[in-house]
Structure prediction request, 473 residues.
Amino acid sequence: MKLPQTFEERMRSLLGEEYGEYEKSLEQKHYSGLRVNTLKITPEEFEKISPFKITRIPWIRNGYYYDAEEQPARHPYYFAGLYYIQEPSAMTPASLLPVTPGDRVLDLCAAPGGKSTELGARLQGKGLLVSNDISNSRAKALLKNIELFGIRNPVIISEAPGKLTDYFTEYFDKILVDAPCSGEGMFRKSPAIMKNWEQYGVEYYNKLQKEIILQAARMLRPGGYMLYSTCTFSPEENEGTISYLLDQYPEFQVVDPLVMNTGATDENSMQNSSAGQVSYEGFSHGRPDWADGREELKNCIRLWPHKIKGEGHFIALLRKGESEPGQDMNRAGNSVKITSETEEFLKHVHIPIPTENLMTKEDRLYLLPEGLPDLKGLRLLRQGLLLGEMKKGRFEPSQALASALTPGDFKKVIDLPGNSSEAIKYLKCETITAETPFGDGYHLVTADSYSLGWGKLSGNSLKNKYLPGWRWM
Prediction:
């Protein structure tokens, strides 16, 4: 791999004697990974049913390596939202933000959804997940991944981060800023990034990062946590950006996310968990000498591809000091008229659907998260869980609702073997035959009991209602 000369010279200066190991790591293949969706299955359960060989990623409780020859996106389990395909190091930021059910969480630069899907799974349907990306086309991919994961409490927005500050001042408990960056840590995985680096360099991205991190700081509640991450090595974009934030907002402090996550006192410590042990061996701490010398910058985390089985990453976890809490922005009460057909269908859906949290837009029916403020004026791709569409004389349930259900949440289920041709035919939007004791009407179609979508049965012919835009190609 031919590195840009100026990049090579700087890395030699930063790494010193370690540069040879780093250079050697670039000749190795990059690592492929997937992250299990804990909303739908535990890591232990997935290990038992995985259709391909997997080995655990040491520092991610629900993360696994798989062989690059495998095709996990070509299996019904992928379409059931059981896992997300993600580079192993990129799983780290969301794993180290201390999210708990009920939190209000913002993923500010969220597309295509690798971090949002993990944050949403950890919320367990409680609280609120706001996922934003300035690119509308990328935000559409984000929406699909969040719905595929079965997340019931999302808001997906496509706006410049600065516009959100008018709506969410001191609103969020936790914020993740996976900032746009020069991408130096991904040169091995995607060598084409080097051309982008040569075109834009570090300064272009550092200016963006400084703007974004200050905007995020204004949206964090006092006492809340913000995690800043990049996939680059540049000190200016990493420790330098954190120092800039601390200059502007001295109420922030940098905390060690490894200590918070495990109680560990150093990066080589382990902790027992339900999925085995988590090890941060190979992680490095931040370098104050690469910025302004502040000692607390040591609490930042650096991932180097010559020290772990993953690509390069930088992580800083920040806590905002206590002060007077910001005002809650509670949504006004909502009164929604639904059709009798809709009401009858929802009787068979066994998840909480408070009527005060329902909203209609045109003929579509949504279940909104608790405490959602008025977002009029923002470019919204989704508010809450789309339940379906109320049409004259009938109700058509949505693909998002199907993904959010387990078989126990809906009585009428047609379960297909996960490795069957029938499951693939269904995912290709073809008509299949089925036998069921529940009679005609809408059925939840599953693969090995994991939700895929809807079908409408007439006799033994199942009219396929799988979302065409998601179909198996």
